[in-house]
């Protein structure tokens, strides 16, 4: 495993486990078992995923000590505001059956995000959360946040070779904020893994197309959180630290950037307002 140092001097592994849409306890049990057997040390969830309780139960059933893995969750925009944000974090702690959260994230930009951020800072001072960050914040939103308080340690963004978002990544690097990629494979949303460039590199390195794309993220200095409910794929996803892409390979993958999101635009004001009804 390789690690990335955060701007608060803590570190995170360069790959973690995503858990979005995994809501059946039996499936989650298999996922967590496979993840720990394969060497994962970072589990990403969110209040919105409606699975914190089963993750907490299965982590208790595992043979891992709490200090052997990092646990990350998020606060949904309808919980922004001093009292609601505290309520959200406290409920997450209870559901996850833990005394602390390694990283707490604002799930999207939204009304009263600044009040939520102040709660994050307070809970960090108390040691209830170790680090604080954001999801789906683009440059304008990040600039707002940097004016009101502590810098986030990371920004979790939709990212793939089809949507490389280079300007935002450059801004993150300049401000020592780690870029973390969700939906890093755009699996099920696109033909990314069928691209000739990816398939040719798959043959070159004797790796699967998914491993090629995940390695590309690693080469960019990105932290990735691929999600799968299949133990074999979970193991495959982390098996990416025994090869490196060449500069020519990186250039070839750069050519796949069609600036295509497969989810919502974080700067879409209509979408942001709709979040408050979910």
TrEMBL record:
Active site: 49 (proton donor)
Keyword Oxidoreductase belongs to the record: yes
InterPro entries assigned: AKR, Aldo/ket_reductase_CS, NAD(P)_OxRdtase_dom_sf, NADP_OxRdtase_dom
Domain NADP-dependent oxidoreductase intervals: 15-257
Gene3D superfamilies: NADP-dependent oxidoreductase domain
Protein residues bound to substrate: 107
PROSITE patterns for this protein: ALDOKETO_REDUCTASE_2, ALDOKETO_REDUCTASE_3
Site positions for Lowers pKa of active site Tyr: 74
Gene Ontology MF terms in the entry: oxidoreductase activity, acting on the CH-OH group of donors, NAD or NADP as acceptor
Top-level taxon of origin: Bacteria
UniProt keywords, alphabetically: Oxidoreductase
Signal peptide: none
PANTHER family named among the record's database cross-references: 2,5-DIKETO-D-GLUCONIC ACID REDUCTASE (PTHR43827), NADP-DEPENDENT OXIDOREDUCTASE DOMAIN-CONTAINING PROTEIN (PTHR43827:SF14)
Protein family membership: Belongs to the aldo/keto reductase family.
Protein name, per record: Aldo/keto reductase
């Amino acid at each position: 495993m390789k690690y990335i140092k955060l701007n608060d001097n803590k570190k995170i592994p360069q790959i973690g486990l995503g858990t979005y849409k995994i809501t059946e306890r039996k499936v989650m049990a298999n996922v967590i078992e496979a993840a720990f057997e394969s060497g994962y040390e970072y589990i990403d969830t969110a209040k919105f995923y409606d699975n914190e309780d089963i993750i907490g139960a299965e982590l208790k059933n595992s043979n891992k000590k709490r200090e052997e893995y990092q646990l990350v969750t998020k606060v949904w925009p309808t919980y922004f505001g001093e009292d609601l944000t505290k309520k959200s974090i406290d409920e997450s702690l209870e559901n996850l059956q833990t005394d602390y959260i390694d990283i707490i994230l604002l799930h999207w930009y939204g009304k009263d995000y600044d009040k939520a951020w102040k709660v994050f800072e307070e809970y960090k001072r108390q040691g209830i959360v170790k680090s604080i960050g954001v999801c789906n914040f683009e440059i304008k939103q990040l600039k707002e946040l940097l004016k009101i308080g502590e810098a986030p340690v990371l920004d979790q963004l939709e990212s793939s070779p089809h949507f490389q978002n280079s300007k935002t990544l450059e801004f993150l690097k300049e401000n020592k904020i780690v870029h973390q990629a969700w939906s890093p494979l755009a699996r099920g949303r696109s033909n990314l893994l069928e691209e000739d460039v990816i398939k040719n590199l798959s043959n070159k390195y004797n790796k699967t197309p998914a491993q090629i794309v995940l390695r590309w993220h690693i080469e960019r200095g990105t932290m990735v959180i691929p999600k799968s409910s299949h133990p074999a794929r979970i193991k495959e996803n982390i098996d990416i630290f025994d090869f490196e892409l060449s500069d020519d390979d990186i250039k070839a993958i750069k050519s796949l950037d069609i600036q295509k999101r497969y989810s919502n635009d974080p700067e879409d004001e209509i979408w942001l307002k709709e979040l408050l009804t979910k």
